[in-house]
Amino acid sequence: MPISKSTIKYVKSLRLKKFRQKYNNFIVEGDKMGREALNYAPSLIEAVYALDSWLETHASTLANDKKHPVTEVELKKLSLLTTPNQVLIVMRHPNNDLSKNLLAGQMSIYLDGIQDPGNMGTILRIADWFGIQTVICSPNCVDTFHPKVIQATMGAFLRVKSPEANLETVLNLIPNIPVLGAAMDGINIFKMPNIPNQAILVIGNEGNGISKITQNLITQRIAIPAAVNSQAESLNAGVATGIICAVLKGGR
User: Fold this and answer.
1) In whole angstroms, what is the distance from residue 203 CA to residue 26 CA?
2) What burial class does residue 119 get, using C-beta atoms within 10 Å of its C-beta: 0-12 exposed, 13-18 middle, 19+ buried?
3) What residues contact residue 203 under an 8 Å CB cut-off, 6+ apart?
4) Quick check: 200 and 242 in contact, CB under 8 A?
5) Class at the top of the CATH hierarchy for domain 100-250
6) Is residue 112 within 8 Å of residue 211, measured between CB atoms?
7) Mean pLDDT for each 10-residue chunk of the chain (252 residues)?
8) How far apart are CA 81 and CA 48, in angstroms?
9) Please, where in the chain does CATH 3.30.1330.30 lie?
10) CATH 3.40.1280.10 domain span(s) along the chain
């Protein structure tokens, strides 16, 4: 059966946050991401729009009522990508509620106003790589279920929780936890005498850094020192997060 105009309109609407919130759904696209969704969160899958060949390959892991065969032309009409890749999945938002259990006894990341979808996706992917289970987003961060964020995570969004909260709320849940803020004037991350097992790493906005309100809650400012002859003004937020996580998680 040909895909209906109303279905195309609905799926395309999920590119916007207000419709993702309204329907509590978001989009995952492409063969790799589709396989990740099947492996890690099959219960969250609402509908799978895919080429016959893809559906046949994954027939044993897909309920019949979720399958919607489409042609390449129809997939292009549904897709938000310039070049669609075999499958588009509509998924339900996972439970991203913040709790003490997500934070206690481990390293977490707090993002203070990250706006670039690429940076957000990269940071979630970095967290996944280093086994960091929670990336908390301030209310003014880009939506973690933005299609460009989802693509950039390469599946990490399925394994890393990304609750939304301000830092004060987080610290009310787990008081006295060390709060490490990435800043140009912090102590050298490579010379930290003691690396805590439990902490929150704060990464600030791409242009303005950590907000004044959040700065007041930081217990230790940390920095990645530049080379003596470096002319670079700063590091990309995703790159900085990766370097710091490598030290905090691998330097014990």
Assistant:
1) 26
2) buried
3) 109, 110, 111, 112, 114, 123, 182, 210, 237, 240, 241
4) no
5) alpha beta
6) yes
7) 90 96 96 94 95 93 90 94 93 91 91 96 96 96 96 94 95 94 92 88 93 95 90 87 92 52
8) 16
9) 5-92
10) 100-250
- Distance from C-alpha of 215 to C-alpha of 180, rounded to nearest angstrom: 10
CA angle (96 as vertex; 92, 99 as ends), nearest 5 = 155
Per-residue pLDDT tens for 100-154? 888 888 999 999 999 999 999 999 999 999 999 999 999 999 999 999 999 999 9
C-alpha separations of 242 from 10, 71, 78, 114, 247 in Å: 36, 40, 34, 15, 9
Q: Give me the CATH topology for the region 5-92.
A: 60s Ribosomal Protein L30; Chain: A; (3.30.1330)
N-term to C-term CA, the chain: 58
Residue 24 tokens read as 């509590």
